[in-house]
Amino acid sequence: MQSKQSKRTKNIEKIITSFSKMHKLPRTLIRFGVYISLSLYVIGTVLVILSNTVLTYDQYFDMVSKETVKVSFILAAEAVIGGVIMDYVFRR
Questions:
Q1: Is the dihedral of CA 72, 78, 84, 90 positive or negative?
Q2: What is the domain range of residue 27?
Q3: Each residue of 31-62: pLDDT tens digit?
């Protein structure tokens, strides 16, 4: 069990050092992309809660609020993947 924990710790340290070596533009893209996706996630979650508790049921409002939550995850993935690819291209 101890060896698994130390391997995970080493892998996490590798990831952290890799991200700290990134160029400024891809790191900024990842940071702001995650901020925007987090804000969309919060907005979508609030809309889902309002749709299910306070407001009267509307099929379209429910669909839009759930899709907002889904899009927030997609946006976060695109920002991270795009930032990593940009950093890879800039290093070459």
A1: negative
A2: 22-91
A3: 999 999 999 999 999 999 998 899 888 889 99
